[in-house]
């Protein structure tokens, strides 16, 4: 939506120049540039935007840590830390769920008590998708191995099946699943759709078409 708005803003002065309204064009062009909407951080995984050349740069090249600070160079580079973990083709290229399942990681659940175990809830929530994409399965198990219930309930999701309205646009804008996916967990890319859209449509499924389409006399 941001992108469409920006294109419209840029196209307008060009159109006016084309129709020889030269006098007003420079003023409009200036105004349009100032009105261009800012792209929020939530959109860094938008594939219309520039891709990062290296998803796992060393701390002194990641633009977050101060390369001038000696201590930055004492930090372990991610690539070294991730060696031997199962890989994916997206995000930071580590399959974190599999790494945990395979016992390669053992996150500490409690800051003080190192023996504290997570409260894991194994409950899948199926979200039927109206479009032809496979249905979405939200797995509680994989999430509650890392997160508290209160990381999601009730601020992001009301804990009731079907009570939350979720859409791809919201996710891409950094809401709902997008509060985490694309930031701290795997991003939305063409290669990752099927991680969430993992349940094939029931046999004989047809798209829910409107009367306007079904009763179209010209079909
Ligand atoms: C990563 C986010 C996340 C975490 C963490 C999480 N949930 Fe959920 N939970 C969801 C989503 C998404 C739904 C489905 C909501 C919907 O369909 O609208 C849901 C649904 C539920 C439901 C409703 C089930 C039903 O059949 O109506 C309950 C109960 C629930 N969660 C309890 C918990 C508990 C207890 C924990 C911690 C052990 C937890 N959740 C952790 C995201 C989360
Ligand atoms: C509070 C943060 C958070 C929210 C909100 C969240 N997730 Fe996740 N999700 C994670 C983390 C962390 C992981 C595990 C690490 C990873 O794979 O990136 C994960 C993993 C997954 C996996 C991978 C399971 C596997 O077996 O590989 C799926 C599928 C998934 N999430 C779907 C969803 C869906 C669908 C929603 C929205 C309904 C959602 N998540 C909302 C944090 C979140
Ligand atoms: C992090 C999990 C996740 C990923 C990754 C993901 N989706 Fe979705 N998608 C969802 C959820 C949740 C819904 C909402 C389902 C519902 O109606 O409750 C959804 C809905 C949709 C819909 C229905 C229309 C809409 O906006 O609600 C389409 C189409 C869709 N996704 C396409 C895709 C495509 C294409 C990709 C890969 C580029 C993708 N999705 C990746 C979670 C995900």
Q: Could you outline the blueprint of secondary structure elements for this entry?
A:
Blueprint: H1 2-18, H2 25-35, H3 78-82, H4 96-101, E1 124-127, E2 136-139, H5 140-144, H6 168-172, H7 193-196, H8 211-214
Antiparallel strand pairs: 1-2
Helix pairs in contact: 1-2
The protein binds heme C (HEC) (3 copies).
Residues 119, 121, 125, 127, 138, 140, 143-144, 147, 149, 151-153, 157, 159-164 line the site of one heme C.
Describe this structure in words.
There is one protein chain. This protein has 219 residues and is mostly helical. Among the domains are: 2-38; 87-201, Cytochrome C3 (Alpha-Beta Complex). The two termini are 32 Å apart. It has a two-stranded antiparallel sheet with strand order 1-2. The protein contains eight helices and two strands. The structure holds heme C (3 copies). One heme C (HEC) binds at residues 119, 121, 125, 127, 138, 140, 143-144, 147, 149, 151-153, 157, 159-164.
Compose a concise summary of this entry:
With 219 residues, this protein is mainly alpha-helical. The protein has helices spanning 2-18, 25-35, 78-82, 96-101, 140-144, 168-172, 193-196, 211-214; strands spanning 124-127, 136-139.
